[in-house]
Amino acid sequence: LVGARWPLSGEGGLCEGRARGSDAPAMVHHGVIIGLCLGIPALIALLFALVTAFRKQIADWIDFKVLYSKPNKETIGFLRGNFAPTPKEETIGDLPVKGEIPQGLSGLFLRNGPNPYFQPLGRYHWFDGDGMVHGVRLKGGKCSYANRWIETSRLRQEKRYGRPVFMKIGELTGKEGLLTLLSQAVKCKLGLVDISKGAGQANTALVYHGRKLLALHEGDLPYVLQVLCNGAVETLMRAAYDEPPAGEKKGRGAEPSGEGQGEAKDGSSAGASSHPVTTFTAHPKVDAATGEMHFFGYNIRSKPHLTYGVVDREGNHAKSIDIDLPAGPAMMHDFALTKTYAIFLYMPLFFKPKEMVGGSGFPFVFEPDFPSKFALLRRDATDASGIQWFDLPAGMIFHTANAWDDPKEEGKVHMYACSTADYSLGDLLSSTSTRYPGSPQVGMPGSPSQDQGGPGGGRSGKNGKSGTLGGGGFIPGAHGGMSLMNGTAHDLSGNPASFAVPNRYLRSMNESSKSRLHSSTLNSKASSFASRLASRKSSKSSVNSSPSQKKDLLNLSGEERSADGDTFTLFHFVFDTTTGTATQQKLLEPEQACDAYLLEFPQVNPRFHMRPCQFVYMACFCDGMKTNGVVKVDITRPAGENVVASATFAKDGKKRFGGECLFVPAEGKEALAEDEGWLLTYVFEHATNSSFLLILDAKTLEEVAEVELKTRVPYGFHSLFLNEEQVQNVKVQSESHVSITVKE
Asked: 3-state secondary structure string, 421-472?
């Protein structure tokens, strides 16, 4: 417009000037278009610059004006008592020892668990905390303690930001869960959060493989750690398992016997994976004979929903197979391994985000009318076309104890795991398997009928609605439990209850109810089952519903819990790959062991992994959240008569609570008894607000030693023991492995 030459009457005459002047509107129109073309990009660039400059303020406004605009009035039990995080890292040497450290017990005891670095915003679940490793170095009869956060990509990003910015499981409840997802999406678009670098907390478990120490979380890749001389750990890198060699990716084109190219009988693709690993189970299995580490990863967002993989003894990604699931994504925490098979646990705890949107529930929903499915895949398979599925009544399994191929009957596989069920002790339930998914078993207890639609049945719960275990919709468990459909539950103050709290705890408890824990000495005798039941019935009558006596719902005294609903205990599963039949049998009631509410965190002598064993050790949960003892079970004995010994942690009249009791075999004694070794666990004493490392004789469950840690160790998840050779191996790490690359 500025450069346009306008005609005047003196130039070319009046008529010519008027003629040219008649073109002025067109020229203005073109000028406006040119201006807009130049101005809109400039405006966009300006807006982009403003958004970039104020992106943190935008994210903060969304979080504090929308997502966290209302104060959270609920009692968050996972941030109180000994669930509360420790605020600092410590190194403490020359720890006092009561008793004597066994001469053969030398190495490093490590336990992983959640410990949020920042004070959480909004709702919080135990799963959500940043990983922290607590270690005790045992050498020459002397002990030292150290704790360190695992420097995950998530934690580093939040440290740079200055507050929690990643999505939490505890926030994925109800319509507020949508705001949580929206908030994270906005942060990703603004470049404030990069979930491609990892969003997991590495807070669940630890594994030693290929001369490396790995910290694990099922929603992310492992983190490689190294150990310092004092037992403290340092984070080296986030592991990356790239595509396996080309020779291992022929599965989709492989011809399964008599079937179509790489396709299962249900019409779904079933081939080898051709993509990098993005999720990695917290419970991989290491085959000591081959040196291989077997793992799986599940993906709730997109297919493949399940991937099975193998890492060779050198740490290289050797094989990866995608497995299609018959009813969509589900929570899959653990699996089992034999010398022949990998066993995947497809429990009916499905990912259904609509349940979150439609109310105030959690997006994982238990479907009691859908069977529990077990998938057996040969370890030498190159694709999933030969997978064999077995259906059993609906239940939930978080942890397996052991599995092996029957040494006498070919094709028969045994598995021991902690599961739930509402039928009687000793009942043997069986079913006929489906060779491939998609064929519901009509008439089988707990299975859907033919008219339920969809692969394996589509209707859920009573009257076609979603259902959950127990009247309160709560699945208890060693990781804090889940209240899956808790939209109508409220605490005593009328506030919506945290989804982590079972409905049966939403009541007042009597301050004066008498303890039923063995408080004087470690009890090495199994008490009468009948007397336990009588004691429980007596205690239930003492519950007072007075609103004036409120309790912290997750930090109960260890004596207030209800017997209603299903709880976890040990089961024996048998899969016959020849006949296609499967059976499951409950082996004991929790009340037989320390009057437990549930039994979980199963342990066996690691030298007996994948081969027949005699003993299984389990932690005794006294109120669904904390453990007050341990039980030793002889699985070769009849159901109900198999408790060899039990021990409570209480001592000198003081209540003490622990966690997973890790079996550490005696060194250099391969030919000795299976139960030759020790059980190690951290124990918290409420009266002194301090923690100890407790060492028990695995044969008798008698106390051997107690290491005073001079600090408080919060409750946590899974443990690992490194012997002296392994400690030396993880002190110096090589970053030259082709399968391990440094990632921010």
From this structure: CCCCCCCEEEEECECCCCCCCCCCCCCCCHHHCCCCCCCCCHHHCCCCCCCC
